[in-house]
Design brief:
This protein has helices at about 10-30, 40-50, 55-70. With about 80 residues, it is mostly helical.
Length: about 80
Protein backbone atom coordinates (compact mmCIF):
# COMPACT_ATOMS: atom_id res chain seq x y z
CA UNK A 1 0.00 0.00 0.00
CA UNK A 2 1.27 3.43 -0.81
CA UNK A 3 0.77 6.69 1.05
CA UNK A 4 0.43 10.13 -0.58
CA UNK A 5 4.10 10.01 -1.67
CA UNK A 6 3.64 6.66 -3.41
CA UNK A 7 5.54 4.76 -0.71
CA UNK A 8 4.17 1.91 1.32
CA UNK A 9 3.77 2.24 5.07
CA UNK A 10 7.14 1.68 6.71
CA UNK A 11 8.08 -0.74 9.44
CA UNK A 12 8.81 2.25 11.66
CA UNK A 13 5.23 3.47 11.22
CA UNK A 14 3.81 0.04 12.06
CA UNK A 15 5.95 -0.15 15.20
CA UNK A 16 4.89 3.38 16.19
CA UNK A 17 1.22 2.44 15.77
CA UNK A 18 1.68 -0.71 17.85
CA UNK A 19 3.47 1.11 20.65
CA UNK A 20 0.89 3.90 20.81
CA UNK A 21 -2.05 1.48 20.81
CA UNK A 22 -0.40 -0.69 23.46
CA UNK A 23 0.26 2.38 25.61
CA UNK A 24 -3.39 3.38 25.27
CA UNK A 25 -4.50 -0.11 26.32
CA UNK A 26 -2.21 -0.12 29.37
CA UNK A 27 -3.35 3.34 30.45
CA UNK A 28 -6.99 2.33 30.00
CA UNK A 29 -6.58 -0.83 32.08
CA UNK A 30 -4.96 0.97 35.01
CA UNK A 31 -6.97 4.20 34.96
CA UNK A 32 -9.38 4.37 37.90
CA UNK A 33 -12.94 3.42 37.05
CA UNK A 34 -14.82 6.70 37.27
CA UNK A 35 -18.38 7.32 36.07
CA UNK A 36 -16.96 8.80 32.86
CA UNK A 37 -13.65 7.21 31.87
CA UNK A 38 -11.84 8.49 28.78
CA UNK A 39 -10.91 5.87 26.21
CA UNK A 40 -7.17 6.27 25.77
CA UNK A 41 -7.07 3.70 22.98
CA UNK A 42 -9.17 5.99 20.80
CA UNK A 43 -6.93 8.93 21.68
CA UNK A 44 -3.85 6.93 20.69
CA UNK A 45 -5.60 5.76 17.51
CA UNK A 46 -6.21 9.38 16.51
CA UNK A 47 -2.63 10.33 17.37
CA UNK A 48 -1.35 7.42 15.27
CA UNK A 49 -3.42 8.53 12.28
CA UNK A 50 -2.10 12.08 12.61
CA UNK A 51 1.54 11.00 12.93
CA UNK A 52 1.68 8.19 10.37
CA UNK A 53 -0.68 9.69 7.74
CA UNK A 54 -1.75 6.30 6.33
CA UNK A 55 -3.93 5.62 3.32
CA UNK A 56 -7.56 4.69 3.82
CA UNK A 57 -7.09 0.91 4.01
CA UNK A 58 -4.12 1.28 6.35
CA UNK A 59 -6.15 3.59 8.60
CA UNK A 60 -8.99 1.06 8.62
CA UNK A 61 -6.56 -1.67 9.66
CA UNK A 62 -5.25 0.49 12.51
CA UNK A 63 -8.85 1.21 13.49
CA UNK A 64 -9.69 -2.50 13.52
CA UNK A 65 -6.78 -3.21 15.86
CA UNK A 66 -7.85 -0.33 18.10
CA UNK A 67 -11.43 -1.64 18.18
CA UNK A 68 -10.26 -5.13 19.15
CA UNK A 69 -8.06 -3.73 21.91
CA UNK A 70 -10.90 -1.54 23.14
CA UNK A 71 -13.25 -4.53 23.37
CA UNK A 72 -10.64 -6.67 25.14
CA UNK A 73 -9.97 -4.03 27.79
CA UNK A 74 -13.58 -3.00 28.37
CA UNK A 75 -14.97 -3.65 31.83
CA UNK A 76 -18.22 -5.17 30.57
Amino acid sequence: MANENGKSISTRDIILAGILLAAGAVIRMFFPKLPVTPNFIIAMYCLTILLVRPRLLEALAIGDVAAILSQLTSGT
